Amino acid sequence: MKKGSGKCYIIGAGEETKLSFTPGKEDFVIACDGGYDYCKRQGIQADLVVGDFDSLLEEPEHRNVIRLKPEKDDTDTGFAVKEGQKRGYQEFLIYGGTGGRISHTIANIQLLSSLAQKGCRGTLVGPESFYQVIQDREVCFPKEQTGYLSVFCLGDRAEGVCETGLKYSLSDAVLTKEFPIGVSNEFTGKESRISVRKGQLLLIGEGF
User: Fold this and answer.
1) CATH number at residue 13
2) Domain range holding 74?
3) Are residues 95 and 193 located together in one domain of the fold?
4) Nearest-angstrom CA–CA distance, 13 and 67
5) Are residues 154 and 94 in the same domain?
C-alpha cells in the first residue's frame, strides 16, 4: 500500500476537468463513481475506485473497488478524502468536484475547510477556477499566475489578513462573513501572498 508522502488526487463525477497532472510514485489516485470514466478517457490510472455508482450505473472492473451504500453520511468525495487520510496523505487535489448541483460544490468546499482545520492542504480544481481554504497560515502564488482571486471569510471573523502582490493589498485586516471586501482581486505578474493569523479564508481563483 502506498503511504502518504506525495499527493492524493481525487477525481469526482461533477463537471469534467482536464486532469493536468502525472501521478508520481508516491501519489495516490482515487476515482469517485463517474470520475472513473474521466480517468479512463484522459489516461489516468486510478489506484482506488469508490462510490455508490449512481453516476457510473455499474461497478467498474478494477482491482481495488469500495462500493458504498446510497444511504450514507459521507459523499463519495468525502469518503475518498478519508481514505487518503488513512494512508497518511496531507495534500489533496480534487478534480470533477464542481459544476452540476451547487450543493455538491458547497459540500466539497466544506471538505476543504475540514482539511484546513486538520492542518492538511486541499485544492478543488474546476475547468476555469480553483478553490482553497487556509487556516492560520500563508499561501503563495507564483508570478506566472493569472486571472482573478477572491478571498472570503469562512466563519464569523478572520483576523490578521494580509494580501500582497495583487492589484489591491490588505495589511492586518479583519474580514467578516457579512462584507465581501476580498472579492475580485487580480494577479499582476508578481509573486503574491495571502495570509491569515486567526481564522479560515476561502480563496477562489477564476479566469486564468
Assistant:
1) 3.40.50.10240
2) 8-127
3) no
4) 15
5) no
Count of domains forming the chain: 2
Beta strands in the chain (DSSP E): 8-11, 28-32, 48-51, 65-67, 91-95, 121-125, 129-135, 138-141, 148-164, 170-176, 185-186, 192-195, 198-206
pLDDT in tens, the chain (208 residues): 566 689 999 999 999 999 989 999 999 999 999 999 999 999 999 999 999 888 877 788 889 999 998 888 889 999 999 999 999 999 999 999 998 789 999 999 999 999 999 999 999 999 999 999 999 999 999 999 999 999 999 999 999 999 999 999 999 999 999 999 999 999 999 999 999 999 999 999 998 7
Same domain, 54 and 115: yes
Q: Give the amino acid at 207.
A: G
CA-angle at 167, arms to 176 and 137, nearest 5° = 50
How many Cβ atoms are within 10 Å of 124's Cβ, its own excluded?
A: 27
